[in-house]
Amino acid sequence: MTNPTENSRPLLRIGLLAIVAAACAALLSGCWDRREINDLAFIMASAVDKEKDGYRVSVLVPLPGNMGGPSGGGGGSGGQKPFAIDSEFGRTPSEATKKLQNRLSRQLYFAHRRVLLYGEDVLKDGLIEIMDGSTRTPDNRLTTLIAVTSGKAADYLSAKSNIERFVTEAIREMLQSDISIPIRVKDVIGQMNSVGDDARFPYLEFAPIKDKNPSNEIQISGFAITSKGKMVGLIKNEDALGFRWLRQKFKPYMDNFQTEKGRYSVQIGKNSSIIKPYLVGNNIHYDLRFDVTGYITEAFDSPNYENPDETKLLENAVASKIQNEISRVIKELQDKRSDSAGFGQLLYRSYPGQWNRSWKNNWYDIFPTCNFHVSVEAGIHRIGMLRENLAQRE
């Protein structure tokens, strides 16, 4: 006689499989954690400023409904701006962001943020805790470009751009251009977690333009240097070029040079460099060698600039100016006890054992005592025959 229980087991198995299949289908049939585009406020840029007892966070959000055409102010339809700027204050940047979220109809979405600006007061107070909070949220992109501003960072979000629809796009392009060194969130995190390679940031200012008071034109005037996570100084103008040589982030640029025979504009087109640490007894030395190639773009008050002797004078002037710029930057870094050029990391790679035993724990006391030897060789090519070929008749 057949046992009824045995007959029911296959049916029970089929029933259980059907339940499991139905449960899986229910889970796969929809997006339980979906976020609709219409419910999101896409952050293009944000700014963090230090205020008494806390921080103010400002965000720039594009408004698609106001991007109808180029007519009107800011390129929006009906003269309305194609973006909105809002801000909130809190004891920490995260608290300020939470307060801002609590009174907005859309969810703040930072995954598309391209630019993050810090007021210089934030850097002077210290970035370690600030950056720690930024990296704990998955939406925060590690490739976001960072810059430091003169004065309040929020003022730069509301500046006008004559070319770009959003000023943050203009800032982003400048931060990636030949006049700067692109610094991203992931770069700063790596530098702040290592000894011998302090963080550095592009430094933004409003350009002083005649007949414009106040000016809304933004420029990169140099770099902010740090020591132990805090801003300790600025490297600006011509010395900023020297800093770029040290960082070995060379990009072609044009500069003016003066000799006893005339004035020249020279395009510095190529560079090869070697920075090598070595020891003399217990003293640390660095040998810095730069090989520079350029060509003349303009010549004034120099009727014989094609003459080899005049070319040599110009080559000496180019080499001397670049050498002085580099030497001034090194002295400034040593005076500020800031290794934003990464000399400590070069020393570690050459002498890893001694670095860990003797130098790592007191590098900020050792760095100002290091000796630097800078040499620059310049070659001027593509001099041309402008006057003889075009400006003089046979």
From TrEMBL:
A Pfam family the protein falls into: Spore_GerAC
GO cellular component: membrane
Region forming the signal peptide: none
Keyword ATP-binding: no
Residues covered by the Spore germination GerAC-like C-terminal domain: 221-384
Keywords of the record: Germination, Lipoprotein, Membrane, Palmitate, Signal, Transmembrane, Transmembrane helix
Manganese found in the keyword field: no
InterPro entries, per the entry: GerAC_N, Spore_GerAC-like, Spore_GerAC-like_C, Spore_GerAC_C_sf
GO biological process terms held by the UniProt record: spore germination
Subcellular location: Membrane
Family, as annotated: Belongs to the GerABKC lipoprotein family.
Protein name as annotated: Ger(X)C family spore germination protein
Organism: Paenibacillus contaminans
